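Researcher: Re-running this chain for the archive, since the previous output was lost when a drive failed. Same request as before.
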Amino acid sequence: MNAVEIEEAISALAEQPFDAQEFPFAFLEAFGNKATTLKKLRSGASNKSDLGGVLQTSNIHIVVAAPGTATEKLAALRASPATKRGKVKFILATDGVSFEAEDIESGETVACDYPDFPNHFGFFLPLAGINTVKQVRDSSFDIRATSRLNKLYVELLKDNPDWGSAERRPDMNHFMARLIFCFFAEDTDIFEGTRRFTATVEQMSARDSSNTHVVIGEIFRAMNTPIASRNDAHLPRWADVFPYVNGGLFSDTLEVPRFSRIARTYLLHIGGLDWRKINPDIFGSMIQAVADDEERGALGMHYTSVPNILKVLNPLFLDDLRTKLEEAGDNARMLLNLRKRMARIRVFDPACGSGNFLVIAYKEMRAIEAEVNKRRGEDSRKSEIPLTNFRGIEFRDFPAEIARLALIIAEFQCDVLYRGQQLALNEFLPLDAENWITCGNALRVDWLSLMDVDRAGVKIFTDDLFGAPLDQARISFENEGGETYICGNPPYSGKGKKEPEQLLDMDFIFGSRTEKYGYVDYVGCWFVLAADFCRRTNAAAALVTTNSICQGRQLPQLWPHVLGKGIKISFAHHSFKWSNNATRNAGVTVAIIGIAREGHSKAPTLYDGEFSREVSHINAYLIEGADLFVESVSTPRSTDLPLMQTGSVPNDGGNLILCSDEVHELSAAHLEAERFIHRFYGSEDYLQGLTRFCLVIADRDADVARGISPLRDRLDRVAELRAESKKKETRDQLAKVPHRFQHRGEIPEKQAIIIPSVSSERREWFPAGLLPSGTVISNLAFMINDAPLWNLALLTSRLHLTWIGTVCGKLKTDFRYSNTLGWNTFPTPPLTDKNKSDLTHCAEDILLAREAHFPATISDLYDPEKMPAMLRQAHERNDEVLERIYIGRRFRNDTERLEKLFNLYSKMSASAGSAIKRKVGTTA
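Model: Regenerated structure tokens:
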């Protein structure tokens, strides 16, 4: 269950008559417990309560109290031995009048009237397996509001199916945005009186809902009619009491969808919520999901947490503002200069969605400004930070509308907080008609023109927020000449996942710059445009991105077009999960990268979790060091290293692969088939200790193999499969030789080193291994055939793991190996015979340590929590020997390892370049 579904179930429970016997089970059911689980609790089979309540182990202990004793029962639950034994997370006591609960670990409590407990449902979300941050638990209102708006939205589409069409969907979305404003306005005194909008709809519309759309339409018309024009508008008296709002919000068509009786009821329920509690920084993202059919299934989870957004905004510019505030102290002149500076700051999100980044930036800046005003004795002073300095581009119309609405709400809330309710109300209406959020394709818009940095003085107004042309956002800033900060979380879309329109965008951005950009993620376009913008203006940028743009093949395709020509990386957050806080959705692994002009005053800073450090320079691998780009090469750059190959590709539908039982059955019936059977390993087989075999049939033996009926059947199936392939080569050539793999690597005569293609990030060493002669390694791994054993010492070293973790691509945060990037580029110093002999002994010790723990799998052995001491010592010894070869001692940390490796790589590359030039000169 998602958060919205849980809220709906909890609300339904609170509305029902209190049933003391059923409450604990109904409460657990609301959080997704299955009928079988509840049955065991009812029967007592799994109920461990010692207080006559219900105790679900590792979850919650619930007791229904006698009237007036809820507080005493909560204390009894806290002291209960069963509570401690059951390792419960929460205790809960209620008598149907009062409701009290406690989080055992944190000590946080809830105490409220029983009907109000749904307002605190976020407190209990861990019961449903939803790991929450404090922000989620405090956002119960936003989730409840989203749930009800979603019900209304779906119900309206049932009765107005044409409004769900592509042509009318914008009208539906506009209508929802207007409703949100009305609900907020009636609870914050923007509309004078209590619940004016909801009460008017309830009183003036028929119970059968036949004229509900008419009543709402008249209210909207009033809010679009200036006070001076009211007499000519002939508004009904009950609509005439609504203020003039306009600002584009109620312009254009005022058509309202027809309401069913159920839809009218939903609307009244929504109006019954306390909209003063709205959080515009996260509400926008959730309400966006209401209008998106694909996202509605995860309703209530579509928002970005404030802490994550601040990882972008703080180092980009907010930290500097706070530092200047601290430095100013009570110095009136310094405080005034800071306030003037903030009034000129522009924040620009070129993929703004529903405005999360802009809203958070605005609220944080208002907090700093409020402190400035307080220190200057000007607490009620009007804000000098213009809302129109917070600009965005969004491809979809509804999120763009919600972004502007969220900023308007944020401005009003800040005015109430820092200046008081009355001053906020006096200056709120009518809304400005400027449209500073652009609906369009950010990759086809001239950002410089949009931000009016040329001071052209373009100032365009509109009566239509929703249908504004693209250049409508070209309005001048109220305070020119300030800094511009670009921020946001653009769409990612990696190789093979881009839509046709996105491929055209990629060509538009990269086509004039390079022919090689096929590996670059879609988000790379935003970095290129941000760098262009920064080169021409007083700007800096910070974007959330997949960590893959700093790894693998795409790095040298993207970053030469971002860095250089005056642009550097100003700060970076290393990889972390940008999650939506639902356990079943781990979120994408991202990095945050800031770029700025070389003259940027702040020292480059690297962030890793809660730690940060200033460095001299950050390169595209997000480490300290000079700019360089490791590109894949077909053969090893280090002369000592042998060739590493990709494994064999069967393309057989599994017919050339056999399990142990199939081998035994085949050998028992056809002894002559044994010569065609070889051990077969992919990465999973090797790591998990799985046993598989494959058929290796030479061309000269094809007829012999076909004489064995089980093999003939397998080959016929391979031929049939390949004959139906979409690839011409497979149909015309491979189908005629079904005994062959599509590609088969060399089979080792002595031994083969196997290198898994992917390895868990948890492993402290990369678990390459040794396989016997005659082994076939699949294309899901790499191999070095018949190579000296000291190569295994290199592959399993901390040095090599550090290198591939930096220059190779990753699968989320797991290590993903590449022979052309990880092995062929690996910098090694010249190795003496003594060095190789020492490393050979180290490799042997590692293999012996593994063998000593047979039958433990490689996966078991390299689990950092279970790794045998003997094996760990062998690896430590291997690292000691290898690192002394590099610098005469152990490296202090991975940073020092990378510095040495990149230094060697630079020299190795320069040497290789000189050799190529000499070769070309000789040929000429």
